[in-house]
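Page 47, continued from p. 46.
Same chain as before, 144 aa.
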Amino acid sequence: MRPKDYPDVVELRRLMGQAMGVPVTLKRLTELIGCSLRSLIRWERGERPALAFRPRLRELDRMLRAGKFSISEALETKPERPRAPLVASGVSVTLEGAQALLRFTLAVPGEAVERRVVEIVVPQEALNMPFMRCPAVRTSKGAV
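Result:
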């Protein structure tokens, strides 16, 4: 079994609260790490943080243990939140009068995360534009 290469998130939040003199909210910690609230809750329940966030967790842990933690400095050094590419799947097009409803599912490749369904209503003539032509897209009334 490999040793953990990141600090315990619950302990990190506790140390941060001690350094600040007040309990640290989940929202504040997400701002300092640059992660989502859902990710932070999973990490506090024992799930391993994503690789992209581990350096930031180690950095905050070092600042706290060295007694050099300040909110303003931590916010200034916060890295940009990594963005995973999204993949659209399950595309469907429904034609209703002069409008077309485009419905597709968004997911992050390689992750077992909640998928989101996105719906967009466009004028039907927008489907005839060159960038919209795709022989693989089928509608309830045939190919677009």
